[in-house]
């Protein structure tokens, strides 16, 4: 068959287009999951190699290999491990076949042990029992419709051949060809996929350069180049032998399995760094791929580099050997497909997105050949026997990147082979790590095999032929109820200029303490919303929201936290803000306490001082009495969990303070003002890291009970939940305490607290994966925003607390680093989270009455300062006027709001998706005239794909 002749690579190669295309991707774009499937007939497989699994190192006439010799020398391998028995696959064909059949793989890649077939490397030493072993294995595979993919040489060279200098001896070309000829003749009627060598780069560089592998030769200057030269010629000879003698009758494919790591330039905008990345790939992958898949010769980048350095060293010729024109013609095109592999040791950082880029580089560099991934996997330590969650994440992300390369980029990917079927002898690491989908107990003489969770997961991928879009991720089209409260939120300290000596909050003091806040940022100016009511209201109008959630600054109204002095200027500010909102039909949603406690109260103990309950009630009384005629939606406390847990507040008093404020409003103001009062509770959703492990399931449930239940259970049911009470009591007694660390409510307090709600206010951002750990509560595994579980957590609230009215009072996502107004990650987040809320409402009957995006604009994000950006609007902090600039997500959110959900898709935008420009308004308030200049809003078709370098060209 062969390949078409391709021109040599330029320097740098034209494949640099891969970096130009992919390197500018944001973190979100790199990690965005792609749902889809591979084509019918995609070859799913697993792989092993002879020395790593077979054992029987001297059984039935097998000769010694270089790895036998190497591992029998003390100190060469970790723990002095060796492959003498390994997984004992030489005696356990049936056990191995059972695992393969259970996985439902279509292919099994394994290698032939050259010294098992030819003990001294030559045909004259033929070992019939070795041949019989492979015949049995191949026959059994064919019987079960599993296609053998056979590697002819996977590093275990007969020691007798190494004794004549191994691959540094040119006679090895003919010796290897004779071995391959025998294998084709003997097994080729059933084997249709052949690989001459596995990772020849490793043979040449690690074996003869670094000397870490057999034959343990450390001559990096020249030996690897001579060895590679011979390996390429040997490969070409074996290919032509198959082509000339067997192809017409056997109809198989022959190639070579090459390995490469993806190389990313530090800065894609610096040409020399792109050149360096390209050169690194040419030295690793191109060393062997370029002669075979291009023009029969080494890459020019490699020839120039080695040649120039050789000249500087005073050598008469390059250390990189040259091919004759005849040899180039003989080598070029000696592959029917491109076999590629990539593996990772867990200690090294894995970057799944690199696989997609590597596949694209191969496509661009080698004329879009058919590609089979012949190895891809990750190791875990041998203590991991079944719960190998890390490998599941690896498979999920790496295979998805391969799917992107196929479905989105047109890479001709034909198969994927996971490394490895089972834990095995892992070269220098011995048995200290394992790549297997199955665990092998190497301490047991029978070497029992046990499937890990990853085996079940890989089975699912094979069954589904990829990642079909799950039902829970499919969008739902429809609308929320009439009068749905669409809102966006801020908090006083985060957006207002409030640093006034007479009314400090705890955040003023905290932010002015060096090293407490990122970059030593503070809220002294923040977004200066104190002076920018007009601009803020204009942003709200542009978003089409009908509500705006903001918080009252307790120290702005009561400087020392008590009613001894009321700051009228502070009250007037909130009157002006509320009047401006109502003038454009935006209803205020007011939070009484969003973490900025008056410093004067903190000086006497803050939330740990029982007097704070009355202080908070008095403060609420001032606010209700002054603003309650205009405000119909109140939140007493925002995220008390964070106040208590992160800010070291006192949860017991927070709950009692909330209850007193609710009763105050209920008894004194509700009849006249007609508003509603609730508390906003935050929680991640928690999933068990291992959904089949009860202790992980229990840990996931526990974290939700501790986050949501800590405050929701008393408010809705009058007391702490049993999970919390039991857990904390057990831990307290275990610590030698005489009673639980969790305080108790008196019967009167239970009665007073229970039912102090008009709705359930809920803040939610992400999901965490949980596993049980010997910590006081739980330990979390790094989470990600699983959108579909938004529906689950809303259903949890419905079932746990009697289907209360729910207002989602915060939901959003941030970014760091350079600002791009085309914030596609935020658009994706809101699209999916809001759609899941719609499913909870329409399909599950969850009584959702409103949704609030966090946040209106980039602001001071507490301890992270201004580095974390959640806003729908960007605040240009380099401009003293702090202009508000809409991100593309603002347009998208406004469209969802305007449509009150998600209209059925059509060829043209729905009417609600076309945001018409609006004119200017002049509003008159009863306190003073305030002119609101409302600028036109971009239409549905407006896009803003710019960075701050060109921000002046994108003012909407």
Automatic annotation (TrEMBL):
It comes from the Eukaryota. PROSITE patterns: GLYCOSYL_HYDROL_F1_1, GLYCOSYL_HYDROL_F1_2. The active site is at 375 (nucleophile), 810 (nucleophile). The keyword Hydrolase applies. Keywords: Glycoprotein, Glycosidase, Hydrolase. Its EC number is 3.2.1.21. Gene3D superfamilies: Glycosidases. PANTHER family: GLYCOSYL HYDROLASE, LP05116P. Belongs to the glycosyl hydrolase 1 family. Homodimer. This is beta-glucosidase.
């Amino acid at each position: 068959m062969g390949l078409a002749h391709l021109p040599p690579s330029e320097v740098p190669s034209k494949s640099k287009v891969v970096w130009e295309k992919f390197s500018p991707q944001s973190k979100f774009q790199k990690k965005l999951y792609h749902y889809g499937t591979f084509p019918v007939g995609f070859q799913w497989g697993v792989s092993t190699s002879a020395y790593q699994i077979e054992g029987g190192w001297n059984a039935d006439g097998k000769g010694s290999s270089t790895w036998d010799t190497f591992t029998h020398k003390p100190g060469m391998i970790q723990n002095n491990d060796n492959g003498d028995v390994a997984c004992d696959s030489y005696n356990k064909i049936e056990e191995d076949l059972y695992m393969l059949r259970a996985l439902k793989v279509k292919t099994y890649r394994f290698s032939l042990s050259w010294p098992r077939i030819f003990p001294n490397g030559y045909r004259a030493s033929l070992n019939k029992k070795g041949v019989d072993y492979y015949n049995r294995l191949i026959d059994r595979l064919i019987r079960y419709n599993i296609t053998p993919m056979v590697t002819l040489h996977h590093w275990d060279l007969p020691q007798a051949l190494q004794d004549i200098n191994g691959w540094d001896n040119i006679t090895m070309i003919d010796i290897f060809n004779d071995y391959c000829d025998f294998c084709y003749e003997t097994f080729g009627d059933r084997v249709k996929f052949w690989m001459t060598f596995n990772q020849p780069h490793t043979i040449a560089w690690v074996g003869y350069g670094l000397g870490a592998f057999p034959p343990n030769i450390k001559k990096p200057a020249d030996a690897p180049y001579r060895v590679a030269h011979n390996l390429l010629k040997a490969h070409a000879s074996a290919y032509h032998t198959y082509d000339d003698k067997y192809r017409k009758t056997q109809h198989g494919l022959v190639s070579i399995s090459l390995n490469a790591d993806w190389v990313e330039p530090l800065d894609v905008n610096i040409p020399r760094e792109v050149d360096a990345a390209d050169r690194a790939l040419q030295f690793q992958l191109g060393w062997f791929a370029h002669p075979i898949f291009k023009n029969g010769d080494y890459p020019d980048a490699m020839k120039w580099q080695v040649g120039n350095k050789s000249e500087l060293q005073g050598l008469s010729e390059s250390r990189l050997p040259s091919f004759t024109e005849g040899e180039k013609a003989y080598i070029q095109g000696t592959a029917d497909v491109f076999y590629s592999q990539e593996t990772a040791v867990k200690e090294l950082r894995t970057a799944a997105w690199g696989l997609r880029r590597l596949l694209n580089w191969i496509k661009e560099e080698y004329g879009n050949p058919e590609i089979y991934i012949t190895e891809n996997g990750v190791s875990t330590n041998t203590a991991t026997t079944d719960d190998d969650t890390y490998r599941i994440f690896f498979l999920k992300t790496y295979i998805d990147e391969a799917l992107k390369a196929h479905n989105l980029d047109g890479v001709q990917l034909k198969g994927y082979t996971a490394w490895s079927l089972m834990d095995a002898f892992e070269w220098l690491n011995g048995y200290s790590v394992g790549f297997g989908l199955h665990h092998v107990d190497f301490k047991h003489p029978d070497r029992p095999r046990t499937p890990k969770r990853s085996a079940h997961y890989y089975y699912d991928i094979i069954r589904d032929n990829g990642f079909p879009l799950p039902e829970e991720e499919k969008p739902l089209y429809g609308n929320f109820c009439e009068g749905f409260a669409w809102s966006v939120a801020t908090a006083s300290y985060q957006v207002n200029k409030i640093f006034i000596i007479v009314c400090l909050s705890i955040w003023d003091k905290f932010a002015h303490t060096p090293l407490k806040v990122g970059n030593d940022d503070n809220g002294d100016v923040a977004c200066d919303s104190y002076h920018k009511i007009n601009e803020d209201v204009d942003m709200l109008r542009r978003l089409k929201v009908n509500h705006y959630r903001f918080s009252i600054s307790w120290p702005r109204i009561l400087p020392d936290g008590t009613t001894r002095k009321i700051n009228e200027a502070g009250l007037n500010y909130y009157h002006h803000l509320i009047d401006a909102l109502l003038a454009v039909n935006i209803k205020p949603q007011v939070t009484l306490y969003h973490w900025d406690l008056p410093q004067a109260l903190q000086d006497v103990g803050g939330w740990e001082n029982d007097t704070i309950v009355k202080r908070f009630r008095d403060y609420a009384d001032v606010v209700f009495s002054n603003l309650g005629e205009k405000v119909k939606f109140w939140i007493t406390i925002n995220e008390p969990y964070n106040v208590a847990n992160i800010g070291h507040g006192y949860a017991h008093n927070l709950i009692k303070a909330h209850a007193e404020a609710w009763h105050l409003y209920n008894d004194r103001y509700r009849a006249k003002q007609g508003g509603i009062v609730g508390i906003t509770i935050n929680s991640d959703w928690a999933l068990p890291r291992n959904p089949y492990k009860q202790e992980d399931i229990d840990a996931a449930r526990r974290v939700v009970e501790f986050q949501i239940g800590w405050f929701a259970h008393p408010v809705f049911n009058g007391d702490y939940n049993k999970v919390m009470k039991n857990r904390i009591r057990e831990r307290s007694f275990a610590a030698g305490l005489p009673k639980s660390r969790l305080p108790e409510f008196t019967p009167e307090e239970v009665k007073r607290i229970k039912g102090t709600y008009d709705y359930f206010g809920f803040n939610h951002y992400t999901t965490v994966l949980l596993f049980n750990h010997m910590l006081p509560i739980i330990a979390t595994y790094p989470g990600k925003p699983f959108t579909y579980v938004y529906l689950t957590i809303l259903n949890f609230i419905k079932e746990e607390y009697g289907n209360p009215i729910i207002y989602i009072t915060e939901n959003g996502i941030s970014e760091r680093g350079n600002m791009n107004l085309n914030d596609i990650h935020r658009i994706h987040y809101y699209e999916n989270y809001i759609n899941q809320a719609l499913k909870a409402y329409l399909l599950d009957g969850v009584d959702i009455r409103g949704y609030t995006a966090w946040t209106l604009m980039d602001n001071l994000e507490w301890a992270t300062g201004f580095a974390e950006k959640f806003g729908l609007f960007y605040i240009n902090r380099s401009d003293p006027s702090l202009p508000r600039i809409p991100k593309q997500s603002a347009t998208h959110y406004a469209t969802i709001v305007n449509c009150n959900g998600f209209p059925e898709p059509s060829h043209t935008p729905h009417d609600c998706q076309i945001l018409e420009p609006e004119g200017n308004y002049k509003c008159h308030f009863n306190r003073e005239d305030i002119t609101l200049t409302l600028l036109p809003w971009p239409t549905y078709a407006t896009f803003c794909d710019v960075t701050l370098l060109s921000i002046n060209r994108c003012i909407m």
